[in-house]
Specification:
Layout: H1 30-35, E1 44-48, H2 55-66, E2 69-72, E3 87-91, H3 93-99, H4 101-114, E4 117-122, H5 134-141, E5 144-147, H6 153-166, H7 173-182, H8 187-204, H9 210-220
Parallel strand pairs: 1-4, 1-5, 2-3, 3-4
Helix pairs in contact: 3-4, 6-8, 8-9
Protein backbone atom coordinates (compact mmCIF):
# COMPACT_ATOMS: atom_id res chain seq x y z
CA UNK A 1 0.00 0.00 0.00
CA UNK A 2 1.50 3.36 -0.98
CA UNK A 3 2.19 5.90 1.74
CA UNK A 4 -0.67 8.20 2.58
CA UNK A 5 1.10 11.22 1.08
CA UNK A 6 1.45 9.44 -2.27
CA UNK A 7 -2.13 8.23 -2.60
CA UNK A 8 -4.06 9.47 -5.59
CA UNK A 9 -6.48 12.30 -4.92
CA UNK A 10 -9.91 11.75 -6.39
CA UNK A 11 -11.06 14.72 -8.46
CA UNK A 12 -13.51 17.04 -6.79
CA UNK A 13 -15.30 18.90 -9.57
CA UNK A 14 -15.93 22.59 -9.02
CA UNK A 15 -19.17 24.03 -10.35
CA UNK A 16 -18.59 27.45 -11.92
CA UNK A 17 -20.16 30.26 -9.94
CA UNK A 18 -22.41 32.27 -12.25
CA UNK A 19 -24.21 34.29 -9.57
CA UNK A 20 -24.81 37.84 -10.82
CA UNK A 21 -23.47 39.21 -7.52
CA UNK A 22 -20.09 37.68 -8.35
CA UNK A 23 -19.82 39.04 -11.88
CA UNK A 24 -16.72 41.18 -12.35
CA UNK A 25 -17.57 44.22 -14.45
CA UNK A 26 -14.66 45.73 -16.38
CA UNK A 27 -13.85 47.63 -19.56
CA UNK A 28 -13.54 44.32 -21.44
CA UNK A 29 -17.20 43.44 -20.86
CA UNK A 30 -18.78 46.88 -20.40
CA UNK A 31 -20.38 47.02 -23.85
CA UNK A 32 -21.78 43.51 -23.62
CA UNK A 33 -23.13 44.20 -20.13
CA UNK A 34 -24.92 47.30 -21.38
CA UNK A 35 -26.53 45.30 -24.20
CA UNK A 36 -28.16 42.96 -21.69
CA UNK A 37 -30.52 45.75 -20.62
CA UNK A 38 -31.23 47.01 -24.15
CA UNK A 39 -33.98 46.16 -26.62
CA UNK A 40 -32.47 43.73 -29.10
CA UNK A 41 -33.32 44.00 -32.78
CA UNK A 42 -35.56 41.04 -33.66
CA UNK A 43 -35.19 39.97 -29.99
CA UNK A 44 -31.81 38.38 -30.68
CA UNK A 45 -28.30 39.09 -29.47
CA UNK A 46 -25.02 37.19 -29.72
CA UNK A 47 -22.00 37.45 -27.42
CA UNK A 48 -18.67 36.45 -28.91
CA UNK A 49 -15.13 36.17 -27.60
CA UNK A 50 -12.44 33.67 -26.59
CA UNK A 51 -12.78 30.95 -23.96
CA UNK A 52 -12.78 32.28 -20.43
CA UNK A 53 -13.68 35.88 -21.30
CA UNK A 54 -16.94 35.75 -19.32
CA UNK A 55 -19.59 34.96 -21.96
CA UNK A 56 -21.19 32.19 -19.92
CA UNK A 57 -21.32 34.35 -16.80
CA UNK A 58 -22.94 37.18 -18.77
CA UNK A 59 -25.55 34.78 -20.13
CA UNK A 60 -26.43 33.64 -16.62
CA UNK A 61 -26.60 37.24 -15.42
CA UNK A 62 -29.13 37.99 -18.16
CA UNK A 63 -31.05 34.78 -17.49
CA UNK A 64 -31.25 35.60 -13.78
CA UNK A 65 -32.54 39.08 -14.50
CA UNK A 66 -35.08 38.02 -17.13
CA UNK A 67 -36.09 34.57 -15.92
CA UNK A 68 -34.74 33.00 -19.11
CA UNK A 69 -33.77 29.37 -19.61
CA UNK A 70 -30.08 28.54 -20.19
CA UNK A 71 -29.17 25.65 -22.49
CA UNK A 72 -25.73 24.33 -23.46
CA UNK A 73 -25.00 24.12 -27.16
CA UNK A 74 -22.43 21.35 -26.71
CA UNK A 75 -25.03 18.99 -25.27
CA UNK A 76 -28.13 20.14 -27.16
CA UNK A 77 -29.77 17.22 -28.96
CA UNK A 78 -33.39 18.35 -29.20
CA UNK A 79 -35.66 21.25 -28.27
CA UNK A 80 -37.35 19.66 -25.27
CA UNK A 81 -35.75 22.20 -22.92
CA UNK A 82 -37.01 25.27 -24.77
CA UNK A 83 -39.38 27.48 -22.79
CA UNK A 84 -42.83 28.36 -24.11
CA UNK A 85 -42.36 32.03 -23.30
CA UNK A 86 -39.81 34.53 -21.94
CA UNK A 87 -36.22 34.06 -23.02
CA UNK A 88 -33.62 31.52 -24.03
CA UNK A 89 -29.83 31.66 -23.62
CA UNK A 90 -27.83 29.16 -25.68
CA UNK A 91 -24.22 28.91 -24.56
CA UNK A 92 -21.67 27.70 -27.14
CA UNK A 93 -24.25 28.01 -29.89
CA UNK A 94 -21.50 27.69 -32.47
CA UNK A 95 -21.03 24.09 -31.29
CA UNK A 96 -24.58 23.32 -32.40
CA UNK A 97 -23.90 24.86 -35.80
CA UNK A 98 -20.99 22.48 -36.31
CA UNK A 99 -22.84 19.33 -35.29
CA UNK A 100 -26.42 19.98 -36.45
CA UNK A 101 -27.34 23.00 -38.54
CA UNK A 102 -31.00 21.91 -38.90
CA UNK A 103 -31.34 21.76 -35.11
CA UNK A 104 -30.05 25.32 -34.67
CA UNK A 105 -32.30 26.56 -37.47
CA UNK A 106 -35.27 24.81 -35.88
CA UNK A 107 -34.40 26.42 -32.54
CA UNK A 108 -34.29 29.92 -34.01
CA UNK A 109 -37.56 29.38 -35.90
CA UNK A 110 -39.28 27.98 -32.81
CA UNK A 111 -38.03 30.88 -30.69
CA UNK A 112 -39.41 33.34 -33.24
CA UNK A 113 -42.79 31.58 -33.29
CA UNK A 114 -42.97 31.68 -29.48
CA UNK A 115 -41.80 35.28 -29.25
CA UNK A 116 -38.73 34.39 -27.21
CA UNK A 117 -35.76 36.66 -26.63
CA UNK A 118 -32.67 34.69 -27.66
CA UNK A 119 -29.12 35.21 -26.41
CA UNK A 120 -26.40 33.20 -28.14
CA UNK A 121 -22.69 32.85 -27.49
CA UNK A 122 -19.79 31.74 -29.63
CA UNK A 123 -16.08 32.14 -30.23
CA UNK A 124 -16.71 34.30 -33.32
CA UNK A 125 -19.67 36.37 -34.55
CA UNK A 126 -22.52 34.18 -35.89
CA UNK A 127 -21.99 35.60 -39.38
CA UNK A 128 -18.61 33.82 -39.43
CA UNK A 129 -19.86 30.41 -38.33
CA UNK A 130 -19.19 27.84 -41.06
CA UNK A 131 -22.78 26.88 -41.91
CA UNK A 132 -24.11 25.61 -45.23
CA UNK A 133 -27.87 25.96 -44.85
CA UNK A 134 -28.84 29.21 -46.63
CA UNK A 135 -31.78 29.89 -44.27
CA UNK A 136 -29.61 29.45 -41.19
CA UNK A 137 -26.83 31.55 -42.66
CA UNK A 138 -29.19 34.46 -43.33
CA UNK A 139 -30.64 34.31 -39.82
CA UNK A 140 -27.21 34.27 -38.22
CA UNK A 141 -25.99 37.23 -40.28
CA UNK A 142 -28.97 39.27 -39.11
CA UNK A 143 -28.24 38.84 -35.39
CA UNK A 144 -26.87 41.83 -33.48
CA UNK A 145 -23.49 41.02 -31.96
CA UNK A 146 -21.33 42.38 -29.16
CA UNK A 147 -17.77 41.36 -28.35
CA UNK A 148 -16.56 40.29 -24.92
CA UNK A 149 -12.86 41.08 -24.95
CA UNK A 150 -10.11 39.31 -22.99
CA UNK A 151 -9.76 40.65 -19.44
CA UNK A 152 -7.23 43.28 -18.40
CA UNK A 153 -4.73 42.99 -15.54
CA UNK A 154 -7.10 44.27 -12.85
CA UNK A 155 -9.84 41.86 -13.86
CA UNK A 156 -7.41 38.92 -13.92
CA UNK A 157 -6.24 39.83 -10.42
CA UNK A 158 -9.84 39.95 -9.16
CA UNK A 159 -10.61 36.66 -10.89
CA UNK A 160 -7.61 34.90 -9.37
CA UNK A 161 -8.58 36.13 -5.91
CA UNK A 162 -12.14 34.90 -6.39
CA UNK A 163 -11.06 31.49 -7.70
CA UNK A 164 -8.84 30.99 -4.67
CA UNK A 165 -11.64 32.13 -2.36
CA UNK A 166 -14.14 29.73 -3.96
CA UNK A 167 -11.80 26.86 -3.06
CA UNK A 168 -11.11 28.34 0.39
CA UNK A 169 -7.39 28.59 -0.38
CA UNK A 170 -5.27 31.00 1.63
CA UNK A 171 -2.55 32.37 -0.64
CA UNK A 172 -0.44 35.38 0.31
CA UNK A 173 -0.86 38.43 -1.92
CA UNK A 174 2.79 38.38 -3.05
CA UNK A 175 2.30 34.82 -4.28
CA UNK A 176 -0.87 35.85 -6.13
CA UNK A 177 1.00 38.74 -7.74
CA UNK A 178 3.80 36.37 -8.73
CA UNK A 179 1.33 33.93 -10.30
CA UNK A 180 -0.25 36.69 -12.38
CA UNK A 181 3.14 37.56 -13.89
CA UNK A 182 3.94 33.94 -14.76
CA UNK A 183 0.64 32.47 -15.94
CA UNK A 184 -0.90 33.09 -19.38
CA UNK A 185 -3.29 36.05 -19.53
CA UNK A 186 -6.29 33.77 -19.75
CA UNK A 187 -9.11 33.13 -17.26
CA UNK A 188 -9.08 29.52 -18.39
CA UNK A 189 -5.39 29.20 -17.51
CA UNK A 190 -6.04 30.74 -14.09
CA UNK A 191 -8.82 28.26 -13.41
CA UNK A 192 -6.68 25.30 -14.40
CA UNK A 193 -3.71 26.53 -12.38
CA UNK A 194 -5.82 27.14 -9.26
CA UNK A 195 -7.34 23.66 -9.57
CA UNK A 196 -3.85 22.12 -9.78
CA UNK A 197 -2.53 24.19 -6.89
CA UNK A 198 -5.51 23.13 -4.81
CA UNK A 199 -4.90 19.46 -5.65
CA UNK A 200 -1.18 19.56 -4.91
CA UNK A 201 -1.65 21.49 -1.67
CA UNK A 202 -4.45 19.23 -0.44
CA UNK A 203 -2.66 15.99 -1.32
CA UNK A 204 0.74 17.00 0.02
CA UNK A 205 -0.54 18.92 3.02
CA UNK A 206 1.71 21.86 2.09
CA UNK A 207 0.64 25.52 1.88
CA UNK A 208 0.71 27.26 -1.48
CA UNK A 209 4.02 29.09 -1.36
CA UNK A 210 5.90 30.62 -4.27
CA UNK A 211 8.16 27.57 -4.45
CA UNK A 212 5.21 25.19 -4.67
CA UNK A 213 3.55 27.44 -7.25
CA UNK A 214 6.77 27.47 -9.30
CA UNK A 215 6.88 23.69 -9.21
CA UNK A 216 3.30 23.40 -10.45
CA UNK A 217 3.80 25.99 -13.18
CA UNK A 218 6.92 24.27 -14.51
CA UNK A 219 5.69 20.69 -14.21
CA UNK A 220 2.28 21.42 -15.71
CA UNK A 221 3.53 23.67 -18.49
CA UNK A 222 1.45 26.69 -17.45
CA UNK A 223 4.42 29.02 -17.76
CA UNK A 224 8.10 29.43 -16.96
CA UNK A 225 9.40 29.94 -13.44
CA UNK A 226 12.44 32.16 -13.07
CA UNK A 227 15.75 30.60 -12.14
CA UNK A 228 15.98 32.79 -9.05
CA UNK A 229 12.88 31.19 -7.52
CA UNK A 230 15.10 28.55 -5.96
CA UNK A 231 15.29 24.93 -6.96
CA UNK A 232 11.91 23.29 -7.42
CA UNK A 233 13.70 20.05 -6.62
CA UNK A 234 13.80 21.25 -3.01
CA UNK A 235 10.23 20.02 -2.70
CA UNK A 236 10.09 16.48 -1.33
CA UNK A 237 8.74 14.34 -4.22
CA UNK A 238 7.13 11.90 -1.77
CA UNK A 239 4.89 14.67 -0.51
CA UNK A 240 3.42 15.30 -3.94
CA UNK A 241 0.58 13.32 -5.52
CA UNK A 242 1.29 10.54 -7.97
CA UNK A 243 1.39 11.66 -11.57
CA UNK A 244 3.10 14.98 -10.92
CA UNK A 245 6.67 13.80 -11.46
Amino acid sequence: MPPESAQMLLPFPQTPNFDSRDFLAAASNQEALAWLDADWPDRRLALWGPDGCGKSHLMHVWAERSGATVLAGRTLRDLDGMPESGGLALDDADAVAVTSEPLLLHLLNTARDRGLCVLLSGHTPPSRWPVRLPDLSSRLRAITVTEVRPPNEDLLAMLLSRLLSERQLSVAQPVQDWLLTRLPRSPGALRRAVARLDQVSLTSGKPITRLLAAWVIRSEGFGVADADEGSVSDIDPSSLPLGFL
